[in-house]
Write a structure and sequence with these properties.
heterodimer, A: 152 residues, mainly alpha, two-stranded antiparallel sheet, 2 strands, 6% strand, rod-shaped, B: 159 residues, alpha+beta, TBP-like, 2 domains, 33% helix
Chain lengths: 152, 159
């Protein structure tokens, strides 16, 4: 029966690294590295390698796989609560209503006199112009004197 | 929907609401309260609101004026609101504002505010005249357009 020894281990390792080892040879290599103490320094990395290969890889349970798969279902296929979408839609509608400048009022001229609305362009313009002239002339001289007199 | 997504949705909604509120806040002026009849009743004032083509020759887009006679308390309220809006004036240069105060009260002001949008200059004007002790004639104006204060002076100042 073949056996891996310190003398032929390099030969077995070379075959293993080339991918030519049989299952039996692999078992012998593992056995050699698992049982031999005081390995020469050039073989110690191989011993570490076989220890790692020997460790069992944790395989997830069926339940764990199911739970994982559940988490991977695209969000659109889940049953989503509708309230955030309704809130977002309401905000969007309000934003459009309040932030869009009113189109119908692009041209308008109205005035209010004694609580009555006057929808007459000329009259509205006249009231507006009078107010502006009053402001820009800051009252005539006579009015300014009256103001100064009243202020004392 | 997990907790993270709910948090994200709520954050998005809150951000959207803040943006919308900021937009409204920029639009509004304190003196709007006067134009809306919250200080002096609408039926006690003479008001004009003109927008669009009628103002094209003045290089204006909006003109809103209000004139009324009122007592001391309302005068102080209007003055306070106007002073609040004056804080967002463009500058203190003569090119951008005129002002006259007497006895600690504002009597006259024309102020250019910072633009809301490029090329749309905004102006607020205030004039107070003593009618008799405790009674005042107040004129309030809001203007918006491409006209500068120099243009407006040329147009409306009597020669």
């Amino acid at each position: 029966m073949k056996k891996v020894t310190s003398e032929n281990v390099h030969e077995y390792l070379a075959r293993y690294m080339e991918g030519e080892s049989t299952q039996e040879e692999l078992r012998l290599l593992k056995e050699f590295f698992g049982s031999t103490k005081d390995l020469p320094s050039d073989l110690r990395p191989y011993a570490q390698m076989f220890i790692v290969l020997e460790e069992k890889v944790q395989t997830p349970s069926v339940e764990a796989l199911d739970r994982f798969a559940e988490g991977q279902i695209p969000a659109c296929r889940k049953h989503l609560p509708m309230w955030p979408m309704w809130v977002a839609a309401c905000i969007a509608v309000l934003a459009v209503v309040f932030l869009t400048p009113p189109k119908g009022d692009e041209n308008m001229a109205i005035a209010y006199v004694d609580g009555r609305m006057i929808k007459n362009d000329e009259q509205a313009m006249q009231i507006g112009q009078e107010a502006l002239q009053e402001i820009f002339n800051n009252g005539d001289g006579e009015q300014q004197l009256t103001d100064l007199f009243n202020a004392k | 929907m997990n907790g993270t997504m709910i948090n994200r949705t709520i954050t998005t909604i809150v951000v959207m609401m803040c943006v919308a509120l900021c937009a409204f806040a920029q639009k509004g002026l304190c003196i709007n309260d006067v134009f809306e009849g919250k200080v002096v009743l609408k039926n006690q004032m003479q008001e004009s609101l003109i927008k669009g083509d009628n103002l094209a020759s003045y290089k204006l887009k909006v003109l809103h004026t209000a004139k009324f006679t009122t007592h001391n308390i309302n005068r102080e309220e209007v003055e306070k609101l106007f002073n609040e809006d004056m804080k967002s004036r463009l500058s203190d240069d003569d090119e951008n504002m005129e002002m006259e105060s007497r006895n600690g009260h504002l009597y006259y002001a024309i102020v250019q505010l910072t633009d809301n949008e490029k090329g749309a200059h905004r102006f607020i004007c205030y004039q107070c005249r003593d009618v008799k002790p405790g009674r005042y004639d107040i004129t309030l104006v809001y203007m918006e357009g491409s006209a500068s204060l120099v243009d407006l002076r040329k147009t409306f100042k009597r020669k």
